[in-house]
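Table 4 source record.
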Amino acid sequence: MSSKYDKYLKLYNDIKSKKGIEPNNFVFARNLAGKKAVFLIQNMFPTLEKYIEQEYKKAGISIKVPKAVKEEINKKTRDIFALTNRGVIATFTNLPEFINNIKNEYKK
């Protein structure tokens, strides 16, 4: 997640106008913890729940992602996984390696 909302909104609009399609790399949230934020799907990496130490909190209050934003993140994440399964590199992270590591650990 990034708070550089305006920067990524401009990039999003530039890509959309040049290519004529909506880029899958961004999910925008207008009010997350009282400010605008953008989730950068290209930076994602899967993990197992046991590695998550705590909820994201601000001033001791848990930050909840709105349902509509969660749904958009899930849809775009599935799209990225589908591209990855077809051999397309769509993230900055090594997504196939993360997936293999998780599968191996899950088997244990």
